[in-house]
Every structure is written in structure tokens, then in C-alpha cells.
Amino acid sequence: MKKILLAAVAALAIVGCSQNEEIEKAGEKAKINFGAVVSNATRANIVNNADFKSFKVYGYKTATKIGPDVTLGEFMPGVVVNKKDVNKWEYTSGPYYWPTTGFVQFFSVSPEQTLTVTTNYPHFDYTVGEIGDQKDLLAANLIDKNKDAGDLQLPFCHLLTQVNFSIKGEVGFTYTLTKLELTGVKDQGTFTFDGSKTAGTWTEVKVSATPTVYAYTGSVELISNADADVSNLDQSTAALFMLLPQAIAADAVKVKVTYSAKVTEEGGNGQSTLEDGVKEVSLPAITWEKGKRVRYTLSLTSDAAQVTFGEPEWGEWSDAEPQADPITPVK
């Protein structure tokens, strides 16, 4: 009997798993070549091809092509695949063989999630944790494959939305932001695969019974010497928040910031004009889309005046239209 060899054909590779079904006849080659490419991508770390070093793939056998009433039979119950070198991935279990009849449906989620599998497409429930626990959630699927499929390229997609914040302020002042909180964000949902290149869709997105408060605590300084000066709370390789895609109603999600301001212009002597001020603003109505990155710019004030908040700006992973005007939080 001929083993199925699962070799890398692109930047990443995914492999199969063992099974007890009928296997290829001796002397027939049944090589499966997998590839896996991460689509364009905080403080959850943003995953790209170079960073993607391990994943688990599941395969399910079906007698016919996948559909609403088609039962998924266990074929590959989960194989951990580790990157050993560029374009070289290895697994320790096996050997693995193509079935002689029917089709195989492949699904993978990274980090691994527990799939619910009966008929049609699998799904899983997901809750976004606090800022320190957030991950760049990826998924991929390949549908209705058999031994004649040739090289199989698994297109991993980002399933969440990057939500980032920047601060700007009045010229001549130095601002130090020490805390930013998001409340009212929907933190729980169900993802269902659908066989598409974007892997699937989110449904039942809601606020959980114990809602998560997403809080950044640190120290971000802005020395405002010109109107264009801004400071980002995120980093180039890590987003500030990695959250569920969702439709946000006006005034549903609140942003609360804690910051200080002092005069930095000549003759100001660096005196504080606002010390540990706490101000709040509501996000405008918007839809956070899967695999997108959105940036909000907070316009801080040097005293107890209102802080404005403008139209958000989107970026790649993929970016949306820029924020027209900054938002100003108020007490």
C-alpha cells in the first residue's frame, strides 16, 4: 500500500491524518500536497507566513459532496503539524492514505478550537478574552477533495477584527495616556465554515453573560509639536485589541481614557493642566468586518474640555475609509 505523503508546496504546509477506510491499491501513487498561506494580516500578535509554525488539521470523509444532509465521517481526527524548515513540515503520527471512494473535507483552526461536527459544515463557539489573552484567530477549509485533486493549497484567513487607537492633542502640550477601556463590546459568537476562500461566517454574536471589559494599561506619550502629531497604542507586530466582527449601534460601545496633559511650549515650565483626567466617548455606529483593521483617533484636550472622536480609519489586513475627524472623549 502506498503511503500518502503530505509535502509543503508553498510558504506553509498542512497535512492529513490516519484512517481505517479503504486505501489505495498497492502500486498506485496517492500523494497529497498541501500548502497553507496566511492572508494579509495585536497587542495580540499578528500571525503571518513566517510566524506560522504549528497547526492541526481535521479531515472528514463523505460519500458525496458536502451538503445540508451529508454526514461527515471521521477520517483524520486531528494531526499536529510543525514547521521544521522553510517549506518543510512534519508530523509524527500516521501513515495516512486516501480513501478509494467519496470525498474528504478538510478544516483547520489556529489556535485549535473544538469543532462541532454532524452534517454539513462544522462550527465552533468562541469568546474573546481580555487583552492579554487575545489571539489572531485563523481558519481554512478545503472542500470535496479526492485523490485526483492535485496540490491542495489551504488559504488561512484572519477571523477577527483588529481594533487600534491613536491619540492626538493640542500643539504645545505633552499627553500621557495610562489607560483605555472598551465596554459594551460583543465578546461571544459562533463561527461556521462554509467552504469559501474566506472560510466561513460569524453568527449569534452577542455580549456574554459575564461581559469582558477590554482594558489597556500602560503609558503612551504624545509630544504635540504639530497638528499632524499622533501616537499609536498598538505596535507594528501587535494590535491593541483583536475582537469579534460585529455591527455596533450608536452609543453601544464606550471608550474611557485616563490621561494627563502638561504644557511643553517655551515658557510653560512643564506645568500640568490636567492630571489623571478620565473622559469617555461613544463609538459611532459602524460594522467591524472580519479580517479588517480599524483605527480610531482620539483627540485629547489639555483641560476638562470635551475630547472629540472622528470617523474611524481602516487598514490592511485590509483597510476601510479613513476617519474623517477625531473623536473627543468628555467627562
User: Which CATH class of the largest domain is shown?
Assistant: Mainly Beta
Q: What's the average pLDDT?
A: 79
Count the strands? 26
Task: Name the poorly predicted regions.
Answer: 1-29, 31-36
The description of the largest β-sheet is:
8 strands, mixed
Based on secondary structure, the structural category is mainly beta
List the SSEs and their pairings.
Blueprint: E1 6-8, E2 32-38, E3 44-45, E4 54-62, E5 73-85, E6 88-90, E7 103-110, E8 123-127, E9 138-145, E10 152-158, E11 161-168, E12 173-183, E13 188-193, E14 200-206, E15 214-224, E16 231-232, E17 238-239, E18 241-243, E19 246-248, E20 254-263, E21 272-282, E22 286-288, E23 293-299, E24 307-309, E25 313-315, E26 327-328
Parallel strand pairs: 1-2, 2-10, 11-23
Antiparallel strand pairs: 3-17, 4-5, 4-7, 5-6, 7-9, 8-13, 9-10, 11-16, 11-18, 12-15, 12-20, 13-14, 19-22, 20-21, 23-25, 24-26
Pfam families: Mfa_like_1
Protein name: Fimbrillin family protein
Organism: Bacteroides intestinalis DSM 17393
